[in-house]
Each structure stands twice: as C-alpha cells, then as structure tokens.
Amino acid sequence: MPTRTTTAVLALLAAAGLTLAGCTSSGSHDSQPAPTTPAATATTAAPTPDKAALIKACVAAIAAGKDDAAGGAPECNSLPTADYYEAIHEANEAAIGKFNDDTDKAASATP
Predict the structure, then answer these.
(1) Is the residue at 33 inside a domain?
(2) Which of 21, 30, 47, 107 could form a disulfide with 51 if both were Cys (CB 3.0 to 4.6 A apart)?
(3) Is residue 55 part of a domain?
(4) Which domain holds residue 59?
(5) The pTM is what?
(6) 18 lies in some domain
C-alpha cells in the first residue's frame, strides 16, 4: 500500500475512533444541563468547480484501483491533503453503498 494511501487510511481510522469515543455515554452525563454557550461552527466554502472536478476525478481513480499503484493515482497527486482525504471518503461511501445494494439484491434473490 503506498505511503499516501496508508496515511489516509490511518487518518480515517483515527477520526472514526475519535468519533466513536465521543459518542460514549454514561448515566452521570444524562443529568448534566446542556452547555449555555453556543458551540463554534466550522464554515467551509463549497468547492470551486475546478476543485470539485479534481476531487471527482480522484474519486473515480480510487474506485478504479489506480491509487493502489506505486506513486498513487495521477488524478490525486495534485490535490492538497484535505481534498485527497475528502476524495477517499467519497470513494469509501460509494463503495459501501454499492456493497449494500449488491448485498440487498443477493438477499432478495435468495429463496
């Protein structure tokens, strides 16, 4: 697995672990009042058409397995790290959706 892909996978796993760690609950937290200060919200600008097209091309390259080659997919190499992670996330979501659809079709076809 190329270093860039390995780094991306590790970053996604770490983010998932932190997300899951934040979702744990215990009985003592239920009685605490909600914080009175509003949480800071991150504002992200919509990607520019050029940026969106580059991310889309990278997603397609990842889905086609080009990112597994040494040096990664050429479509992804020009992306900043954050956009590359976004492309990986989108490719993973698409793969999960396809897997679920295929599983549902197979289950419905089974007598």
Answers:
(1) no
(2) 47
(3) yes
(4) 47-111
(5) 0.51
(6) no
